[in-house]
Amino acid sequence: MSAAPAMARRSMLERVSSRARLIRRAESRDAGAIGAIYDEAIATGVATFAAGPHDAAERREWLAARGARAPVWVMEQGDAVRAWSALAPFSHRPWYDGVAEYTVYVATDARGTGLGGEMLAQLVREAPALGYWKLVGMILQGNDAGLALALRAGFREVGTHRAHGRVGDGWRDVTVVERHLGAP
Question: How much is the pTM?
């Protein structure tokens, strides 16, 4: 039996293995790690407008409530989840149906190791199969690593939303980035 049929059976939507790292769809068992990584990012003050904490029970509910076009992936390295990423519809309005917002979070001690780039590349590969032709990101002011990640992945800066949301007591701007994956 050739390797081609075996490769065809393996869904790219489910698993991608790279250098002892495994990217796969998130499962309920990943909820605690997803929450912990998210809370680490929240603590930086530059990753998200969200506030924590996000325990396993809350993240399990969050995972269960996501629709088919709002998947979450995790990256395992060894026996631990080291990063997670997600896509979500940009808007409920039908004319934006092919646009998704992306999210990538990496464990504090794994930042700068290439995991974020691998996770974002996975989103770019998977988005067209989910009906998306464009990805957008909203990167908080001060998140230089997040902006550099997007630019390295072929995104372009579109502009800045001034005073787009609050973190603590302060208003924060967001830089909007986009990448066209191929218009229909």
Answer: 0.85
Check which CATH number belongs to the domain holding 103 and give it: 3.40.630.30
Query: Considering its fold, how many domains does the chain have in total?
Result: 1
Q: Please, what's the largest Cα pairwise distance for the chain?
A: 62
Task: Establish if 1 belongs to a structural domain.
Answer: no
The CA angle 131-82-69, to the nearest 5 degrees, is 15
Count of CB atoms within 10 A of residue 131's CB?
A: 13
Domain around 46: 13-180
CA-nearest of 34, 100, 21, 22 to 63 is 34
The side-by-side arrangement of strands in the sheet containing 80-89 is 15-18, 21-25, 72-77, 80-89, 99-106, 134-140, 170-180, 156-167
Measured between alpha carbons, how far is 184 from 175 in angstroms, rounded to an integer? 26
Query: Is residue 4 a part of any domain in this protein?
Result: no
In the block, tokens 């796969």 appear at 24
Note the pLDDT of residue 73: 97
For 22, other C-beta atoms within 10 Å of its C-beta total 14
| Identity of residue 125 | R
Q: Which residue shows structure tokens 């229909």?
A: 184
* Confidence class for position 10, pLDDT limits 50, 70, 90: very low
Q: Is 1's pLDDT higher than 80? A: no
The answer to whether 92 touches 104, Cβ cutoff 8 Å, is: no
Q: Would you state the pLDDT for residue 13?
A: 37
